[in-house]
Specification:
Strand order of the largest sheet: 1-2
Strand content: under 5%
Structural class: mainly alpha
Order of helices and strands: HEEHHHHHEEHEEHHHHH
Number of helices: 12
Number of strands: 6
Helix content: 40-55%
Largest sheet: 2 strands, antiparallel
Shape: globular
Length: about 400
């Protein structure tokens, strides 16, 4: 198995690396806050260590401000809370009512969602007016995202992407968290003639459609039907967590009671088959190549049997994919352990910690104070030529963020 899972890594052993990560992150956030010109749009990726803006929508602005909130969450430094909160109040309202994108999870959960969570957890003082403000923003965001709906056969449908009603993006699944929060807050989408449309139902239908059409299961659907392969990233472990929490709150049943239900079976199958693909197609230290069909892979030899070489001259590695995968593997592992599958769950959790142990250190952690990126050797959109490539294809940063669960 290519990813050599290190069972000796524990969260306690990672503590010093996490503390260093936050130390480095503080400087990066302050540097960007001081230098960024909002007339350019949102920061997306770095060129020679400085952020640039290039994208089809302003899908990373929530990450920019949400990073300050997570910095406060991890360190307690008040200035980051105030910095993020001020920017959210001044600049994020249009994202709440944006009817033209599939990015509500990226933008609004990262900002309004984190402020709401911090207030609920008692990390910031409770203020009824602010709490109502955050909840209204989250309610509206979820409903507007759910309104981007294309009906397909069998009574199913999906939330379409910015490309139009025909387009099912696999990463739209991240925006399901906006529907989940809005539903939990008691909200519905109101349609024509006062039709009440369940946000939970649309969440389930979109996820089911994505699992059916955007993930491969090795069943001979077409020539590229490799088990676990997808056209883009997909996050199902988080949905499994959500349904576990939903049962606890709404049905009052133990977590295991609905493990075999149809919806969770679909999500679990999608989560585990993509997790296995990642584990089997990453380098020994958990870092993947940017694409498993990259044209120059044959020049790298048996690259999966060794730690990743981000300085190779042929194809870039993708540390951003690694950190995204790590949080998914951790969620999936936790879910399986709660279901009583200790061995399988522990395996995925340790895979996540193995990846974290790699990316929290050089050469992936960017410790150069002149470089605004936090994570090096990542990829944004290589086929479109949007990544900055100097002498070799490595060393730059894509704006990413893992947001703590707000459900």
């Amino acid at each position: 198995m290519p990813l050599r899972i290190d069972h000796s890594v524990t969260t306690q052993k990672l503590r010093s690396r996490v503390e260093r990560l936050f130390d480095v992150s503080a400087g990066k956030i302050l540097s960007l806050e001081k230098a960024w010109n909002f007339e350019k749009g949102s920061p997306v990726f770095t060129i020679r260590g400085k952020y640039s803006s290039r994208g089809w929508t302003e899908w990373t602005q929530g990450f920019q401000f949400g990073s300050s909130l997570l910095q406060f969450d991890g360190t307690g430094e008040q200035r980051f809370l105030e910095m993020g909160r001020k920017s959210i109040f001044e600049r994020m309202a249009t994202h709440v009512s944006h009817v033209g994108v599939h990015d509500h999870g990226f933008n609004n959960i990262s900002t309004y969602g984190n402020l709401w969570r911090l207030m609920r957890e008692g990390r910031i003082p409770f203020n009824e007016r602010e709490n109502d403000f955050y909840e209204l923003a989250l309610k509206v965001s979820g409903a507007i995202q759910a309104a981007r709906w294309t009906q397909i056969g069998g009574g199913k449908g999906y939330i379409y992407s910015f490309n139009g009603a025909h387009s099912l993006f696999i990463d739209t699944i991240r925006s399901l968290r906006s529907l989940a929060l809005s539903h939990q807050l008691g909200h519905v989408l109101m349609g024509e003639q006062d039709q009440k449309i369940s946000l939970l139902q649309r969440l389930i239908e979109h996820a089911d459609t994505t699992a059916r059409y955007a993930i491969y299961y090795g069943e001979g659907r077409d020539a590229y039907d490799v088990p676990g392969r997808t056209a883009h990233e997909s996050i199902y472990a988080e949905l499994l967590e959500f349904f576990g929490a939903l049962r606890d709150r709404e049905a009052g049943r133990p977590r295991r009671s609905a493990f075999g239900s149809g919806t969770e079976t679909v999500f679990l199958r999608a989560a585990t088959i993509t997790a296995e693909f990642y584990v089997k197609n990453s380098c020994a230290d958990g870092i993947p190549i940017w694409d498993t069909a990259a044209p120059n892979l044959h020049r790298l030899g048996d690259y999966l049997s060794k730690p990743a070489d981000p300085f190779n001259r042929w194809e870039p590695m993708d540390s951003s994919a690694a950190v995204i995968a790590a949080q998914g593997l951790l969620r999936l592992g936790n879910y399986l352990v709660l279901q009583g599958e200790e061995k399988r769950g522990t395996r995925y959790r340790q895979a996540a910690l193995t990846i974290a142990n790699t990316v929290f250190e050089e050469p992936y952690l960017s410790t150069d104070w002149n470089h605004q990126g936090l994570l090096l050797h990542s990829v944004y959109h290589r086929p479109n030529g949007w990544d900055y490539i100097a002498a070799r294809p490595h060393g730059e940063h894509r704006y990413i963020q893992s947001v703590r669960d707000t459900t």
